Amino acid sequence: MVGQTISHYKILEKLGQGGMGEVWKAEDTQLRRTVALKFLSSETVGDEEVKARLIREAQASASLDHPNICQVFGIHQENNETFIAMAHIDGPSVADKIKERPLPLEDALDIALQIADGLHEAHEKGIVHRDVKPQNIMLTAKGQVKIMDFGLASLSGRSKLTKSGTTLGTPAYMSPEQLEGKDVDRRADVWALGCVLYEMLTQKTPFAAEYEQAIAYGILNEDPEPVSAQRADVTPEVDRLISKALAKSPAERYQHADDLLADLRVLQKRTSTRASSERSKTLTANQTSGAMDSPVPVGRSRLRIERIVAVALGIAFLGLLAIYLTQAPPEAPQQVRLAKFTLSPELPIDVSSITRPTPSPDGRYVAFNLGSASTQHSLWIDRGLTLTVWDAEQDRYRALTTQAGLGPFWSPDSRHIGLVTNKAVLTINVDSGAERTLATWPSQLRWTPHGGTWAPDGETIVFSAGPGIGGRRLYRMSASGGKYELLFEPSDEEVSRGGFFDPTFLPTVDGRRALLYAEGEDHADIGVINLETGERRTIISGNPRYGRPLYSPSGHVIYQEPGGRLSAIPFSLERLEPTGDPFVIAESATEPGISAQGMLTYAKLEPVATMQLAWRDRSGNRLGSIGEAQEGINFPVLSPDGKEVVAVGTTDRLLDIWIHEVDRPVKRRITFDETSDDRPTWLPSGKQVTFSGGETAQRNIWIAATDGSAGPTLFYESPSSDFGYEWSRDGKYLVGSGRSFLFYLRAKADGNGWEKVILADDRFGHVAPDLSPDGRYVAYRSDESGRAEVYVRPFPEGGGKWQISVDGGGQPRWQGDGSEIFYVKDDTLMVVPVTSQQNFTHGAPQTLFDGEGVLRGRGQRYDVTADGQRFVVVEGVGSRNPRQIQVVQNWYEEFRDRD
What we know:
By secondary structure, the chain is mainly β. The protein contains 12 helices and 60 strands. The strands form 15 sheets. The chain has a 6-stranded antiparallel beta sheet with strand order 1-2-3-4-6-5, covered by helices on one side. Strands 28, 29, 30, 31 and 32 form a 5-stranded antiparallel beta sheet that branches. Strands 53, 54, 55, 56 and 57 form a 5-stranded antiparallel beta sheet that branches. The model is unreliable at 155-167, 275-352 and 372-384 (pLDDT under 50).
């Protein structure tokens, strides 16, 4: 047909052919424009039903005027040929784009958004496409989507062209109701768009199979693998959107394309603003000081240390890890390889408690910590945390020591494990299990460890530790034992911020050795120190709790962000500074590791469990639910009148303050800022709450009306991160704690604001204060005995104290008449009878009930009514998914187009 003229169209070339027709590029000789002509194929010329479909496509498309729908100019019959003339799209189809590689997340969301916009226009005109698929989505040279081929469209008010029970469409994109031959509506297009988005991100359809029968079975009976399990940069929010679009029941699916459109716009906004947000949080030394910070002399002993990276791997795949770690670097061109592993709940260990899994240099072993949730958050507790090693060759694991330490690290010959505990630096022989103490801390202090590493020459160990909860320093010592010494002297400000964490050595360049580290507990920056000169600089700053810096052989520093996200930034070893903008490489991720061959490993965070407030009596019997279920409930506090509970709840991975009604399944949100808010407590009036939060790591105390009549306003600007715990009944005092000290706020003498008074210093980790009803005593938790215990001391003058708990305890709460103090020991609720009318006295602790998992965890997990007969607890609703581990070979290949 090339060269022929049909009507006033000169045929130029054939563009493609489908089951129903052929598409040709042509010149409109009258209007001097390039068009596309769609003819019936030679096989279907005499098929009246196919001809009717072609006519219907023209009618449906012509009735739609939308930039994301291909424009139809007319329908013609010439020499027994029926064809439609439409706009010529000078670009590929989405199917063509997917053949090359999975699309970047931002591109896929943009295309899906445009498709949804076009479908919304069609649905508003009563038109359902019924055959949305990548082949029918064209892209212009500028990236604009054009929806094609309305040949299967159903128009409202028109009779069907097919018999009842007949299925039309492409099987891989057909909704369950289409497969079953039922009537379909706009929700079938929503399903198909969910399939297209899934395929754009994974390069495969969600129900991929070799045969159509298997595809149909999957569509009707199975759930597709989440996209986030296949791509590091995809968030759980994307999974949830796709899951809702692919709900098998139309009633559970997005009901309108504009509903899907709204969620796509939210995701697109978050994705497109992430890079600029990351850029604003990154500061190089040249931007801040123009030069290295104050040089501190450092010895020139051979410190060629390369950190044994902490890889987030679990027992279910350690055999495969051993193979990965011993592989040679892949030949170019490199291919991204991603594997997902789920730790089996059938293993005879608590797989949800695995932390800091770290491979040996030879890949044979993996060392990791096992322990309860409470011990993961409190390294002061020696019980319950076990260092375990897995032998991948023999497929077995065994416990080595129960001493508590954060982060095992390996000797270069893979024969010994280093461990920094709150008492000492140890090495442990992997074969015999023999322990050797290299150094101990001063006996009067409990030290908190935070990572260590062994030099490649086997002669030196570098580690992070420090007295109390804050103020960790970096130390070095001989691997054979003896004295340890400071790597450098931190400033008072650096000590007050929490000190230094997670050291990791950079590769040596021209004989120069340098070290990465995280600095600051509440506002952790990433820094680098030149070990030859002692010069230091901050390379990444601006976000609380950056940590776990690692150097990737791709030329990047990988680091962990708060809330569970991994990012990377290009980095020059020669200049010791970033050379580009940071970018996110994995969402909902923690515990990163990187191999010398560029294999990235990390743990996928478990979904935040849905929680429910509930009543328990003194025997632990469940009495009923409170408020409305939501994610991440914590710190429940009953209102003074007992009618409401204020609590922390998770909103889009941020913490907000919510009010739950006691008598109705209703909750309401009272904070809406872009930072996390925490630790709410009621004012005596019951009409306001105070809480901790702020734009930066300097967590100030805020106040808000619980009825929403007055938004949060600044109540007390804190010089450090302070949390208010309990108001006195007369409203004169707010007692609280910082990182490890007790304080209270009182009104200034001039009545202009509030002032802070220190009640107990930070040597022993004093936290979680609770005032007695008469305001004369304060109960709190302290680690001064070497483990967490509950104490009582006079308030506000202090002086003297009484230990209330025995053999561990925390989360103290007073009964309303001051006759009892409750606390949690492990997961058991305890009670101690007390008197405080003249002199304070107390009895022996008694057991009330086993919390069965509801009392253990971060923060305050319960509250008690004034009469001491009922308890508000936080329960989990439904089961949690097993922890997942990701292994990505050649991780940077997925992001190479950023160059």
